[in-house]
């Protein structure tokens, strides 16, 4: 694959799937452009993990600060890891050591903003019913974007009110209960829209009007559109719904291990970041009340 195509695919992933901000997107793009300007390679078949080591040495000789070197190395390592996971690259970049940096707390929406966001799709139109069902299911089940778009009709159990999700990382299945509102709109979508689709025999749950599976980029644009219609000022992405789901569960007293299982995290330390978000939100509300 050409390097330019691989970069475009990676940048779409971090913007839509990972839910990173436009500023972070621009930083990643600049880091990769500078790296490949140094590397002078045009195809992914030419890449090697030693490329990163060579670049780190080069940046050090150029007198770049440790924070700059760390950020650029982490960007490139993330790019190589993504290509490996997508089976574009057959090497492993984890052997490259980079300085550890602090994690940013994920942005979350309030319950009020979630409700306002979900009210925006026009339920008098098929696309509005579908989008409302997608928003409800993603939030209710804490799904990743790829997991939502890859849901199958056969994954949905009407008798048990749950879905089986094939996790993007590791291809492990997990069973997740569906909330009452999500179930209502999902059933509405299946009966009133999905069953009339030109490709209704497809096993994929969510389809466009041509019967094709929706793309991550399309769903990201829909979420951004509805957020703007709802007057939400914060920069959000589909992944914000997953962050909000986890935070709201913890605020309502859910146990950390239960949230971990629903999110499909392999390590509980990954889930623990939401305890900090939850505490921060609670303290913020307390301060507002006291003042």
Overview of the molecule:
- The chain is mostly helical.
- 57% of the residues lie in helices and 4% in strands.
- The chain contains 13 helices and three strands.
- It has helices at residues 3-17, 22-39, 50-61, 66-85, 111-118, 126-141, 145-149, 180-192, 216-229, 238-251, 256-263, 268-271, 273-290, and strands at 156-157, 162-166, 173-177.
- The chain has a three-stranded antiparallel sheet, with no helix packed on it.
- The protein is globular and about 60 Å long.
Derived from helix and strand composition plus strand pairing, the structural class reads mainly alpha
* Low-confidence sequence ranges: none
Radius of gyration, in Å, reads 21 Å
Q: Report mean pLDDT, rounded to a whole number.
A: 83
- The portion of residues forming beta strands comes to under 5%
Number of distinct beta strands: 3
H and E string: HHHHHHHEEEHHHHHH
Helix content: 55-70%
Number of helices: 13
Break the fold down into its secondary structure elements and pairings.
Layout: H1 3-17, H2 22-39, H3 50-61, H4 66-85, H5 111-118, H6 126-141, H7 145-149, E1 156-157, E2 162-166, E3 173-177, H8 180-192, H9 216-229, H10 238-251, H11 256-263, H12 268-271, H13 273-290
Question: TL;DR of this structure?
Answer:
By secondary structure, this protein is mostly helical. It has helices spanning 3-17, 22-39, 50-61, 66-85, 111-118, 126-141, 145-149, 180-192, 216-229, 238-251, 256-263, 268-271, 273-290, and strands at 156-157, 162-166, 173-177. A hairpin with a 6-residue loop joins strand 2 and strand 3 (173-177).
């Amino acid at each position: 694959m050409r390097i330019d195509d691989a970069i475009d695919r990676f940048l779409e992933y971090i913007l839509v799937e990972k839910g990173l901000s436009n500023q972070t997107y621009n930083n990643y793009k600049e880091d990769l452009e500078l790296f490949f300007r140094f590397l002078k390679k045009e195809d992914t078949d030419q890449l090697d993990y030693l490329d990163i080591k060579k670049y780190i040495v080069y940046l050090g000789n150029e007198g770049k600060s440790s924070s700059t070197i760390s950020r650029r190395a982490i960007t490139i390592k993330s790019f190589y890891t993504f290509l490996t996971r997508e089976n574009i690259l057959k090497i492993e970049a984890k052997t490259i050591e980079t300085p550890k940096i602090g994690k940013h707390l994920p942005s979350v929406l309030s319950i009020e903003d979630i409700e306002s966001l979900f009210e925006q799709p026009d339920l008098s139109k098929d696309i509005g019913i579908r989008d409302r069902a997608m928003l409800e299911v993603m939030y209710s089940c804490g799904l990743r974007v790829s997991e939502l778009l890859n849901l199958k009709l056969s994954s949905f159990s009407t008798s048990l009110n749950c879905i089986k999700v094939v996790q993007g990382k590791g291809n492990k299945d997990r069973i997740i209960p569906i909330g009452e509102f999500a179930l209502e709109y999902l059933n509405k979508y299946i009966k009133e829209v999905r069953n009339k689709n030109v490709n209704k025999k497809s096993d994929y749950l969510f389809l466009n009007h041509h019967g094709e599976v929706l793309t991550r980029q399309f769903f990201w644009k829909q979420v951004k559109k509805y957020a703007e219609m709802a007057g939400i000022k914060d920069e959000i992405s589909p992944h914000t719904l997953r962050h909000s789901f986890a935070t709201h569960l913890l605020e309502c007293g859910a146990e950390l291990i239960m949230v971990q299982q629903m999110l499909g995290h392999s390590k509980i330390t990954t889930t623990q970041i939401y305890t900090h978000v939850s505490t921060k939100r609670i303290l913020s509300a307390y301060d507002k009340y006291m003042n």
